[in-house]
Amino acid sequence: MKLISKKTKAMKKFDEQTLPIVRSDIEEALNAIAKKHGMTKLSIGTITYDPDGSNFRTRLEGMLPLSAAQKDIEDEREQDLFEMLEMPRDSRGKEITIDNRKFRIIGVNPKRPKYPVLIEDSQTGRKGKTTAYTAICALGVQKEKA
Asked: Which helix (H) or strand (E) holds 97?
């Protein structure tokens, strides 16, 4: 298996210009490894490098597919979190419009109380976050009066 497809010059040091090239090659190799071993995720984190550019460090994160029982538990937990935010339990996957741009709700992160709703730009695929209030308004959820 050939991991680097194009011939490149040897790097002199790791810096802002060279690390994106290295990252791209690492991500390509990680995708092949994840596929080979049946992982749902194998990704590289933030890369930092020494001031002299001789070393870099990063973190890898790998994830195996959830079993059906684990998935049910995770889905129920997420639905409970949406409900705690006063959003519909089935909010995942719903499309919303924010500032004339379409997004899809992809999850909820309770560790981010200010911006707990995870979204993905429908056009670019770029991931982001928003407030529960913004998501509720975009979903058109009407609160019951007490």
From this structure: strand 95-98
- Structural domain boundaries of the chain? 19-63, 68-139
- For the chain of 146 residues, list the mean pLDDT of each consecutive stretch of 10: 56 90 93 92 91 93 88 92 94 95 95 94 92 94 59
Burial class, 126, CB count within 10 angstroms (exposed 0-12 / middle 13-18 / buried 19+)? exposed
| Contact between residue 84 and residue 108 where contact means Cβ atoms under 8 Å apart | no
Q: What is the 3-state secondary structure (H, E, C) of 98-137?
A: ECCEEEEEEEECCCCCCCCEEEEECCCCCEEEECHHHHHH
> What CATH class is the domain 68-139?
mainly beta
**The two structure tokens encoding residue 145:** 């009066």
Contact 133, 85 (CB under 8 A): no
Note if the pTM is more than 0.85. Answer: no
| Phi and psi at residue 120, to the nearest 5° | -135, 130
Amino acid at 23: R
What b/e string do you get for 15-54 counting C-beta neighbours within 10 Å, with b at 16 or more?
eeebbeebeeebeeebeeebeeeebeebeeeeeebeeeee
